[in-house]
Design a protein that fits this description.
Elements: H1 23-28, H2 32-35, E1 42-43, H3 55-67, H4 75-92, E2 101-104, H5 107-118, E3 124-129, H6 133-141, E4 145-150, H7 160-166, E5 171-177, H8 189-202, E6 205-209, H9 230-234, E7 236-240, H10 243-246, E8 254-258, H11 261-268, H12 280-292, H13 294-318, E9 323-324, E10 332-336, H14 346-354, E11 356-357, E12 359-360, E13 371-375, H15 380-394
Parallel strand pairs: 1-11, 3-4, 3-5, 5-6, 6-7
Antiparallel strand pairs: 2-8, 7-8, 9-10, 10-13, 12-13
Length: about 400
């Protein structure tokens, strides 16, 4: 096992499109990923990339600061709906109605607002599990109830019959990640059509979190949910952001396409300022990403696919008993460690014995117990150190 990961060591093609992942730089960051655990722990949990953000986003924020342009500033914010429409049209073949696009401070703010305004206490919310942990929290904290629809663990596909069977008379919403977090599935047309069919038949609101839509791997296609049918477009709140693809989550900027007219009206009728406003740096960075960031994104996706494939090879060779369904999207590895029959949660075991911090599968619901989620968006060297440490601890 390697004793230390050094800053920027490794071959050039392992460094990503923007230069080496510098461990000294990462240790100097104040973000939660690199400050939550002691220095001897390698963090690979929260979904931030270790790659530096796209230069166009940095330049946009730097130019704002150099101008001293910190007054009330709506210039970039006003451009975001049209920029989002053009980005979706160009990248994914969907042309949203710009009049229905509204900026939000982040994706979860939009999801919570749609859930709060589109449902009543006690209403059921379908989650495709395992799923993003905050989904459970926002459903229960708002007085709604989780309606569990587990994906098939063999490939993490949606079972249309299971989805139809879990929807009861009190169910009002289907809330899901498209592509899926943590499994990395890019749902295909048949699965999305099944969701749309159930939603239409039972008159359900759909909230589609598409924050990972720009991070598919070769052979996979992201299909925005409103493209499935005219009815799907009319009943769906589609939420997205540049935050995952361009590594700018801390700038807090997102958009939602409010396809559901009732939710759209309720949002427009809210008192002014109740949802706050997007900060100018976030709007500037997002606008730069969606208008000038495509070359960087394409190079980054190529690197993330290389990292994914490297992790798959290392796990197959060096982590016997760990199962890995190679993701079609995201930079997340959903690792099945149930066969190892560890006495504790695998994430806790690895933190204690390998000094590696991964996300605990149980945070993603009961169907995540025995799993861990590994963030692969770092250098090949760091990934090798993580897997070396895991192998030594499991041995």
């Amino acid at each position: 096992m390697r004793s230390k990961v050094t800053a920027g060591n490794g071959r050039d093609d392992a460094r990503g499109p923007t230069g080496a992942v510098d461990l000294d730089r990462l240790r100097s960051l104040t973000c939660i990923k690199w400050t939550h655990y002691p220095p001897d722990v390698i963090p690979a949990w929260v979904a931030d990339m270790d790659l530096p953000p796209a230069p166009v986003t940095v330049e946009a924020v730097r130019a704002l600061a150099e101008r001293g342009d910190f007054g009330y500033n709506m210039a970039a914010l006003r451009c975001l709906p049209d920029a989002f429409v053009e980005w979706e049209r160009h990248r994914h073949g969907w042309e949203p109605d710009a009049r229905c696009v509204r900026p939000f401070c982040d994706v979860m703010q939009a999801v919570v607002a749609a859930l709060w305004l589109g449902t009543e206490p006690g209403d059921g919310v379908v989650l495709l599990t395992p799923t993003y942990p905050p989904f459970f929290n926002i459903v229960t904290a708002s007085g709604r109830r989780v309606v569990d629809c587990p994906l098939d663990p063999d490939g993490w596909r949606l079972d249309p019959d299971r989805l139809a069977s879990v929807v009861d008379d009190g169910t009002r919403v289907i809330l899901f990640c498209n592509p899926h977090n943590p499994t990395g599935r890019a749902f295909d047309a048949a699965e999305l059509t099944a969701i749309a069919s159930v939603a239409e038949r039972r008159d359900l609101l759909v909230i589609s979190d598409e924050i990972w839509g720009d991070l598919t791997h070769p052979g996979a296609v992201h299909v925005p949910f409103p493209l499935v049918s005219e009815d799907a477009a009319r009943r769906t709140i589609t939420v997205s952001a540049a935050s995952k693809a361009f590594n700018v989550a801390g700038l807090h900027c997102a958009v939602a396409h409010l396809g559901d007219a009732a939710v759209r009206k309720k949002l427009n009728d809210l008192p002014p300022h109740v949802l706050g406003a997007v900060g100018t740096p976030g709007a500037e960075a997002t606008l730069a990403a969606w208008t000038r960031g495509e070359p960087w994104l394409d190079a980054t996706r190529e690197y993330l696919t290389e990292a994914r494939d490297h992790v798959a090879r290392r796990i197959a060779a060096d982590l016997p008993g760990v199962r890995f369904a190679v993701p079609q999207a995201t930079y997340l590895a959903w690792l099945d460690m149930r066969e190892l029959a560890l006495d504790s949660d695998p994430a806790a075991f690895l933190l204690d014995n390998a000094r590696v911090a991964l996300s605990s599968g149980k945070d993603f619901g009961v169907h995540g117990e025995g799993f861990v989620r590994l963030n692969m968006a770092t250098s090949i060297d760091v990934l090798d150190e993580i897997i070396d440490r895991m192998a030594a601890a499991l041995a």
